[in-house]
Design a protein that fits this description.
It is a single chain. About 35% of the residues lie in helices and about 20% in strands. With about 280 residues, the protein is α/β, with parallel strands linked by helices. It has a six-stranded mixed sheet with strand order 2-1-3-5-6-4, sandwiched between helices. A six-stranded parallel sheet has the order 9-8-7-10-11-12, sandwiched between helices. α5 runs parallel beside α6. The longest helix is centred in the last third of the chain and has 17 residues. The mean pLDDT is about 95. The protein binds NADPH dihydro-nicotinamide-adenine-dinucleotide phosphate.
């Protein structure tokens, strides 16, 4: 029998990197499924990103994640972009192709969509998106491409909100409108899905509350949060109390892992293994 001592290499480039738990989650899945691959969590300074990508190419990495602050800057170091990454204008997952080139994907919104689809289909729905930053942009584009009828962007900064609404109108079939968030927000009666894609609620701001009229959270709503740490945010607790269906930010993170590993190794891994790993880290 001939053994191979050459493992598949994957990893992440970010700064800071120490508090990113993706390595633990992905390697738990590799171990569980007996995949001979490694995931290296690398701290890469912005000025070193080009060298890092050239190094990954030279070593034949199967691919890598990019996180803050590299999601936009990495684009110029790749050979092409998948459709949604092109619309979003940011990449968080590079994938080596059979010809050795690297394609940029954006799995932030795709991970959210996979998590959302465990409880609801956005097709035909009115989706309310709180926030207009990087996570909101990725989620908005994916739910719009998945057939959401309308996306309402609710954001404090009008300029950032307008930018996202213009992108949705120009590049997706969904209707889009902006509410400038300068007073308590009331979720409209016809909305089916509300997503917190702001950073409110993220550790250490664990009691951070959004400026919402809580009585507008009706039991028929799906209320989702992107915050993975801690997973039970004040928004999700308030929504649960009112009978809404809730989704935490761990689901989004786990499904990004599932999608990335599928791209890099061709294996469909069990999300429950990664969820258990993250729950052990974040609690909940
Ligand atoms: P950005 O900095 O790009 O955007 C932050 C957004 O939050 C902006 O729209 C900002 O509004 C809004 N915001 C911040 N503070 C408040 C507040 N007090 N009230 C209302 N709005 C506020 O961040 P990202 O989009 O990159 O990340 C957002 C969150 O998403 C992070 O907490 C991150 O942990 C999470 N995330 C989770 C992922 C997962 O897999 N679960 C993946 C990626 C991100 P304004 O424009 O007015 O400043």
């Amino acid at each position: 029998m001939t053994a191979s001592f050459l493992s598949t290499i994957t990893g992440s480039f970010a700064m800071p990197a120490a508090e990113n738990p993706t390595v633990a989650m992905v390697e738990a899945a590799y171990r569980h499924h007996g995949i001979d691959a490694r995931y290296l969590n690398c701290e890469v300074r912005p000025e070193a990103l080009g060298d890092a990508v050239r190094g990954a190419r030279a070593m034949g990495w199967a691919g890598f994640n990019c996180s803050i602050p590299h999601k936009v800057a990495v684009v110029e170091h790749l050979d092409g972009l998948a459709d949604s990454a092109r619309i979003i204008g940011a990449v968080n997952c590079a994938v080596r192709q059979p010809d050795g080139t690297y394609l940029g994907e954006n799995t932030d919104g795709q991970g959210f969509l996979a998590s959302l689809r465990t409880v609801a289909d956005p097709a035909g729905a009115h989706v309310v998106l709180l926030g207009a930053g990087g996570a909101a942009r990725a989620i908005a584009v994916e739910v719009a491409l998945a057939g959401a009828a309308a996306v309402t962007v609710v954001n404090r900064s009008a300029a950032r909100g307008e930018g996202l609404v213009a992108l949705l109108r120009e590049r997706t079939p969904a209707r889009a409108d902006l509410v400038v968030w300068d007073r308590p927000y009331r979720v409209p009666e016809d909305a089916a899905i509300v997503v917190n894609s702001t950073s409110v609620g993220l550790f250490p701001d664990v009691e951070g509350r959004l400026d919402l009229e809580l009585d507008s959270l009706r039991p028929a709503l799906v209320v989702a949060d992107v915050i993975p740490n801690p997973p039970r945010t004040p928004l999700l607790r308030d929504a649960e109390e009112r009978g809404c269906t809730t989704l935490d930010g761990i689901g989004m993170l786990v499904n990004q892992g599932v999608i990335g590993i599928r791209h890099w190794t061709g294996v469909d891994v069990d999300p429950a293994v990664m969820r258990a790993c993250l729950a052990g880290i974040f609690g909940g």
